[in-house]
Design brief:
The complex is a heterodimer of chains A (about 120) and B (about 110). Chain A is built from no helices and ten strands. Chain A has about 120 residues and is mostly beta strands. In chain A, strand 5 and strand 6 form a beta hairpin. By secondary structure, chain B is mainly β. Chain B has no helices and nine strands. Chain B has a six-stranded mixed β-sheet, with no helix packed on it. In chain B, a hairpin with a 3-residue loop joins strand 5 and strand 6. Chain B is globular. Chain B starts with a strand and ends with a strand. In chain B, about 35% of the residues are buried. The chains are: A mainly beta (about 120), B mainly beta (about 110). Chains A and B meet through strand 5 of A and strand 4, strand 5 and strand 8 of B.
């Protein structure tokens, strides 16, 4: 079945970097655009970034632009986000999700928690 | 960028009640509007795409409607398992903005 599994979350100090991964299975990863969405504790969903199926087109939310880098390795069916200059307001559960033209986010992974704290 | 505003932010209703949640865009766009359900402690799940297309396996008591700037999610007869927070999202182009969510509680 279609599955997305995030990993790499944890506790990180402000100003440091962290890389999250999302491993896909059950579908042809290279055919789909992929997204990161985050949710701060007790808050709503915030769209973070998208990467096209071939990695050529990338867009970011203003809140992470210049600090986060989304990428993908289609040979490994894996999505990444490199997060740098982390701040307290980056503390959130980070979800990856699949999409394609005309089709919204489905499915979602189970999420990985990132806590930015000294 | 288009902003998405949901109302109400929370509601409490009885089993069997009809529930309506509204999502308003700051300006009009295509009908690439999705609704998601997030149950406590779980990842969101897609309920409706293209404003009104019910996803396979989603109960028929859920429906979506609207166009332009105003969209609606309706639960025709609220069930205990519908306890969740519901989000709208535009997905025509980046940024794929979400509404702030509507928490549905059961009286």
């Amino acid at each position: 079945q279609v599955q997305l599994v995030e990993s790499g979350g944890g506790v990180v100090q402000p100003g440091r970097s962290l890389r999250l991964s999302c491993t896909a299975s059950g579908f042809t990863f290279s055919n789909y655009q992929m997204h990161w969405v985050r949710q701060a504790p007790g808050k709503g969903l915030e769209w973070v970034a998208v990467i096209s199926f071939d990695g050529r087109n990338i867009f970011y939310a203003d809140s992470v632009k210049g600090r986060f880098t989304i990428s993908r390795d289609n040979s490994k069916s894996t999505l990444y986000v490199e997060m740098s200059s982390l701040r307290g307001d980056d503390t959130a559960v980070y979800y990856c999700a699949r999409a394609t033209y005309g089709v919204p986010l489905d499915p979602w992974g189970q999420g990985t928690l990132v806590t930015v704290s000294s | 960028d288009i902003q998405m505003t949901q109302s109400p932010s929370s509601l409490s209703a009885s089993v069997g009640d009809r529930v309506t949640i509204t999502c308003r865009a700051s300006r009009g766009f295509s009908n690439y509007l999705a609704w998601y359900q997030q149950k406590p402690g779980k990842a969101p799940q897609l309920l409706i795409s293209a404003a009104s297309s019910l996803q396979p396996g989603v109960p028929s008591r859920f429906s979506g409607s609207g166009s332009g700037t105003d969209f609606t999610l309706t639960i025709s007869s609220l069930q205990p398992e519908d306890l969740a927070t519901y989000y709208c999202q535009k997905y025509d182009e980046a940024p794929w903005a979400f509404g702030q969510g509507t928490k549905v509680e059961i009286k």
